[in-house]
User: Fold these one by one.
Assistant:
Number 1:
Amino acid sequence: MTSGERQGRTALVTGASAGIGAELARVFAAKGFDLVLTARRAERLTALADELHARNRVRVRTIPADLARPETPATLLEALARDGVTIDVLINNAGYAVPNRYRETSWEAQRDFLQVLVTAPCELIHRLLPGMTERGYGRILNVASVAGLMPGAASHTLYGGAKAMLIKMSQSLHSEQKGTGVHVTALCPGFTHSEFHDVTGTREEMRRMPKLMWLSAERVAREGHDAVMKNQAVCIPGAQYKAITALARLLPLGAGHHVAELRSRILAKRR
């Protein structure tokens, strides 16, 4: 499908104010998609919308919203429906992590985390999928993580589990939607240059990671776009992460868990 044929289609990007979300918005805008951008930081959204409209001459709407509020997915889509906006592409990118051990965090922090990373994406998909299926066209890109393919380790306790759920859900939907014109992909990046580690307070720890382990947000976004257009169920950017996740699948469950624990202890000693 050419850029011209994509004119008139609209992509909704959550968590679009920075990082992978902003780069995904840039990739889809360059391909001719109109955009709806949502995140909490209104000024960031406005600046990105101005950039994308000037560069690509696409329509860009911004809707500042907090997906931690349970009512946000419904009110967001209801507002778009009232304005006659049809969503053809859904990019579930909004996310963050809650650092520290589970017992040291508040339930409210974990509850909001689950709302943003699990419940909101599920609700947005559930509300948009029937229309996509009826129209015979849809693209759903769920930004997960290699953490969802690895054994769990200490700290950020629910993060790997939440991302694993997105991956499994994406695979199931990918199978369910075959032949309907709706593509579903889980994008599973590893360490990516963005504001993610500043938000979680782990920037100093991450600076000790080898340069080989880092990906650019631009690369991740480009590979995610290409994967969902090709209807690839799971996309793992970077040969290093393809190798790591393949090895993790080969290790016995207990051995993989011990390796994850060892990595956590080594990083903790370096702090």
Note: The first helix runs from residue 3 to 6.
Number 2:
Amino acid sequence: MKSAGRTVAVLSFHKIGEPSDPRWYSWFCIPETVFATQLNWLRMNDWSVISMERFLQSLSDPELLPERSALLTFDDGYQSMATVALPCLKRFGYPAAAFVPGGYIGGTNVFDVDNEPEERMCTWEELRELEAGGVSVQSHGLTHRPFSELSPIEQGREIAASKSLFENGLQKTVEVFAFPYGDGGDAASVTQFLSREGYRAAFLYAANQPYSPECLPVSDPFRLDRLAMGPDTDLRLTLGEYALRSTR
């Protein structure tokens, strides 16, 4: 809705730093220097980086946000989130959100080893460190499976059990879900599950191309799109033109 004059660019990262196996290139692995350059672009181009809490508040009151905001999200809970990304975020003073599959806390990304190098995942202690450092830990389900491949019973379990797991483990309220692989399954039934369990928003992953920031108020808080971030993502090309349009 253009009248509100508020837009939010939701950026989706995975791994920050060098891959565990230097022989294996991964587009989802962004070197720390490149990551810092991307964050600096947001700062130099007047994109205000907001917390997940503030984003959720804006769903009912868009005027709480500046004209252009950015929400930084990280999928899967790789250990590099705590060891590399968090210190960089702290240097910029930026909040973020991490979507973590509950079944792999403290383990490795066995759900992706056919396509990605094996990496360590955050432990509970590291997830608490993220929370203390301004990174809101939210749900990415339990088993990191595409929702279109799950039965309704399995979908409901992924949504409900992961919420309970993180709320008990982190002693906080979990209100946001990110669909593994951006696969949200059947929108109507999945939205019912999410709403019933008390979620307020859910994110897809690179569902629409080319990407455009969300205009507030959003049409459906349970089908929010995000921009896939890799080492070659050019924010100037992706967001620069939109920023110019939005200030006219």
Note: The chain has one domain: 2-246.
Number 3:
Amino acid sequence: MNYLICTIKSIFNWTLEIVFPQECLGCDKKGEIICLNCILKIKRAERETESNIIACFDYRESIIKKAIWNLKYHGRFAIGKILGELLYENLLEDISEIRMYTEGSPILVIPAPLFKTRQKERGYNQAEIIASSFCNSKKEIFELKNNIVVKQKNTEQQAKLTNKNKRLKNTQGAFKVINTEDVKGRTIIVIDDVTTTGGTILEIIKVLKKSGAKKVIGFAVAH
């Protein structure tokens, strides 16, 4: 992560929120990014996801779409913190089931990586911000690692591809594991902001399993 760019963007956004107080993305209530009332109204994801991927919210919900857009393209890192917390709180039951496979070890949490040039341009990885907040919700049961999987191919953005087969083909061979010893025998959660066909997460799951991971599950904020 380009921490200098992140720091500059964080200071800039913090300054903006002092001069122009933040408003809820759902109802424009001042002083909150997403108010509790709007959080309670967000629809859970009901559309079927691929096997081994669990999505939290419906991406068609305008508040979720706004939240992810503002995090992804406008550097509003506080939104990523909220999304990470919501991901944890809404998937507690699934996390409890996953813990049965860990044999007392922490669950390894890996954010979906960006290609190096794209991350340099953006200055940060939104999945990493979400994953960090997710882990901070219960530090003792998670171990966050962002240096295990890298994206080795600069693929076309998944959102620009409308065909499922093209999306799946787009991510083939895009990721590799560089620290295999950290993966062997581990139970892992891969975190991303959005999953559609599941191409990105499924490809990461595949390379982690090939590297000896015991169990790998994908978590996404929205689908």
Note: The first helix runs from residue 3 to 19.
